[in-house]
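Q: Nephrin, please. Structure only.
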Amino acid sequence: MGKEREIERKTGEGRMEGTQGRERDRKTEGEREGESKRGRDRLMERKKSREREGDRWQKRDKEKSKRQRHRERDPEKARGRHRRQPVGIAGATDREHGVALRIPIRAPLLLMGMLTTGLAQLQIPASASRGFWALPENTTVMEGAAAELRCGVSAPGSTVQWAKDGLLLGPDPRIPGFPRYHLAGNPSRGEFHLHIEACDLSDDAEYECQVGRSETGPELVSPRVILSILVPPKMLQLTPEAGSTVTWVAGEEYVVSCVSGDAKPAPDITFLQSGQIISDITTNVNEGSQEKLFITEATARVTPQSLDNGQLLVCEGSSPALDIPIKVSITMNVLFPPGPPVIEWPGLEEGHVRAGQSLELLCMARGGNPPATLQWLKNGQPMSTAWGTEHTQAVARSMLVMVIRPEDHGVRLSCEAHNSVSKEIQERGITLQVTFPPSAITILGSASQTENKNVTLSCITKSSRPRVLLRWWLGWRQLLPTEETVMDGLHGGHISMSNLTFLVRREDNGLTLTCEAFSEAFTKETFKKSLTLNVKYPAQKLWIEGPPEGQPLRAGTRVKLVCLAIGGNPDPSLTWYKDSRTVTEPRLPQEPRRVQLGNLEKSGSTFSRELVLVTGPSDNQAKFTCKAGQLSASTQLVVQFPPTNLTILANASALRPGDALNLTCLSISSNPPVNLSWDKEGEKLEGVISPPRSAPFKGSAAARSILLRMSSGDHGHRVTCRAHSIQLRETVSAFYRLNVLYPPEFLGEQVFVVTAVEQGQALLPVLVSANPAPEAFNWTFRGYRLSPAGGPRHRILSGGALQLWNVTRADDGFYQLHCQNSEGTAEALVRLDVHYAPTIRVLQDPTEVNIGGSADIVCTADANPILPGMFNWERLGEEEEDQSLDDMEKISKGSTGRLRIHNAKLAQAGAYQCIVDNGVAPPARGLVRLVVRFSPQVEHPTPLTKVAAAGDSTSSATLHCRARGVPNIVFTWTKNGVPLDLQDPRYTEHTYHQGGIHSSLLTIANVSAAQDYALFTCTATNPLGSDHTNIQLVSISRPDPPSGLKVVSLTPYSVGLEWKPGFDGGLPQRFQIRYEALETPGFLYMDVLPPQATTFTLTGLQPSTRYKIWLLASNALGDSGLADKGSQISITTPGLDQPSGEPDYQLPTEQPADSSELPLMPVLFAVGGLLLLSNASCVGGFLWQRRLRRLAEGISEKTEAESEEGPIRNEYEESQWTTDLDKQSSTVSTTDVEPYYHSMKDFSPQLLPTLEEVSYPRGLTGLEEENMAFPGHLYDEVEGLYAPSGTWAPLYDKVQMDPCDLHWSEDKYEDPRGIYDQDITFQWYLSFQPGLHL
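A: Structure for Nephrin:
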């Protein structure tokens, strides 16, 4: 162990010295010496740490040896522990090396020793000498690598095994319990090398090779060797966190720690700052998370500098177990202050500027982290400027832009630079020297003087730097100043002043007097101040131009007066006067501008001023004067004007009917005098003239009076006074409006009847006259007063009108209006007539009448208004002819309308609609049914006259009887004239009523040929009469021939046929067409598909050919034969040049001309067909005889099988049918539930011309009934009875069925002869399914 530690130490020191040597190469000579000294100190410290670690290992070894010797001194305990150890293995003495070792064996290992007993022993020749020829050595391997400890022995017949820390591994080469261990080498040559795969820390131990005692010698034990496992550190933990960026301040000290992961041996840790090794570190080695593992913790003190900014601080861990050191790092963000600022001056002379100049100064500061913050100051006060940084060059820039002013002279501009880590602010400053001219020049004194007098003026400048000189100019003539003075000014400048006195003359008037300032510093600029010299002298002449004096002017005439003067300075101020008062324009803008005073106008030496006025009464005989200094001129105007004010005076203000009113009209002033007159609403009145009196404006006054008697009709009328001037041809008017107080009076236009529509609005207007206006409008209805504030459905408008909404018929009636004012009251009645849509109140439904009788359909309605022609009638039907009412009489009287039917017929039965329309929507409609009662009429269709059933007492049969009649019909049945006893369980009757259609189905169970093959009579009876029909119950037989064969279409190559099927004999029947061309021998056959079809198109014909066609019906018992003439027809196909169309039913009487010779191909086909038919007839005859025998046998067998279960099944079917029908709806139309009869034909498959037997089951499943309707009332669904024309026919056409829709049972009666045993009850069920196809 000590040797291994020394090797590790030397290896680590060598790596460290190599690293330090590389670092020293990158430093200066002085740094290298210091670094070398620090490296030697660090190596000494690590050497001492290694020695302390070695001492701990030696101490552990001594403790282990001591415990071993203690066990050897206590043989009893040793024997107790080793009592199961195999002989020859407990101990051994190495005489060759003189070493005696004892291996302690613990109790848990005794079992392994016992297991190894009896294993194969190593066979070594007895003659060989015992001993080790290869001993194990101390070995160091990396974790995960393979290790091998060598052991070569010469010990024939002995057992060899290894011990790990005293634990015997056993002599088995596979070493059980240690899957990574095995013995390697050739045992026959004495090779027992211990090989360990994928070493880990658990393999770090002491090992020895042991040879057991044998006959040739004692046991042998090799020296102990150590297998040392090197574990590299997996990680380094750096504080601050690795990979992060730390912010430090340059010059300050910081502590960084780096801790390694578990390793063996303890790794060395080195710190590098910006690539340079840090010598100031402290290292501690601690125990790891497991035994034998160590953790190294190193701490470094770092003082960053500005050059370290952005560089890495690296922690590097090295170990003998590592090929390449592991590293972690952090990025240093070092904060340091910027450099001093620098100001770039734009020019040669720093600080010298001129006022008005735009100065731009750039301040820069280099370096710094963060970059510098720049701030401009003016005399120590911050200025608002912007600054920016260039991070790539670490430069901060700030541009100062300012316009120089005179007050900036002597100002100090400075730029400061600092950042967050600056200890002091760095500054650079400049003092400004500003040159500026005088900002203004002022001339003191007046430039206005009377001619031939002196003028004294002073010229003063504002402060300037440097000073300026002054000089005077009059026009282009320079004047010499009388005195000049210089004083100190603002901002370090100077003020210049110059005084001037000189004599003015009239010719100097208007010349420019200038004071000029100049200096060598401002050679490109001139500063001046000028005045205009004003020499005063008086005017010479004054006069007025205008209309001649004494000329009459009409009021409103525009008159212009012009005042003129010659000469004078200043310009003469011409002033106008009216009767010694100054003339001025109106000051307020809303006053009419009757006077317009012009400005003083100058033309050469002549001055003028206009006075424009619109003449008025006040201008009559007025004197207008113009003055200019001591001069004046005057003129006088004569103005004619109408009355200035026309006033009407009354002796009373409150008037009532019958009062007397005295009115006086006064004309205050006019020139010339006027005539006065009176009128009232165009009616002239005579008045009394008053004596004249004095008037203003030197005019004339007039007065005239009238006396009036008042009435209510005079209220609001105007009494007008008119003043007329003959000379002026002008009239002035004034009126007096009469205010007569009187109680309310309704006007002639008042409406007393108002019409409204129900649910609409109504307005009851009020047209009333009163003075004063009515104080209140009160409405009452049926004794109740309507609230003036309004209600849910009414409102009283401001004019008194009553507004109603959502009007109902209950609002119809008289409304009383009460109007009142301070003079009295008035009342009126207004009627509201509410129109509403009609409503049918009485409608007799249904209305019954016997056939041939008379009846009225009465319709009574409630409506307003009731109009003579508001009743109308409609008949409901699908066809137009069904809706005609020509044979009926319409009667209308008041609120009742009648539709009168004379000689009632069945065609008139049905639904009628009463329509009432009085013009108010919507019209009322009422539905009424007319029921025409008639006696029963039993239907006698041919297919129902026969019913076939097997008479073997196993089958059932259903007889169907249907009749029409109203009211409901009662059915009775007889057999051969004898009434049937329906109490007999063999007979079951079901009766159905659908409107006027009534049906009775008689089901006979277990039909017996002896008892039931008879004539059954069905009788239908109601209160109006009766009718009957006969139905013959017969045995199953061949079908009857079809009838009515006819052609429905004909073409050159095909013919369309139609027929009526005959009685099918009780079995499913099919049809076959036999036809022949009369010119060609032989018959052709064509089966009709589907089998139950009654129309068919025969194709494959030839043009212009005569054919004879037969139709045959067949069932399982045979065919109908060809004797019946109704089942054969002859046709002739048209030629290709003939149009196809409806067939010609006249048979041809002679052969066509082109058919004299038989074509060859049809003859050959006919001959071949005959041969085939002859052969088929022979085979068919044989098969037919065989089939008949089997049918007979099947009938006998089924009779025996169903004799017991048949009645029970019929009873169940009857119960089920009755229950299902009771649940049906009563709204199904007649055509949906007509109970047709269907024979047994639909329950047999097709008879194929083959030898195979086909199964025909007797039961059917999966069928559902359609809705059936049963009458609950005598006349329920009467409208269904009288459906539109065309719905009755064909009532008895058979419904086509498709055998493919059936669900045949597969578990009963496989014998095909079961076709005779179909359940008749199921036929009766299907007879009510008109839409079902089997």
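A: Brief note, in case it's useful. The chain has nine helices and 96 strands.
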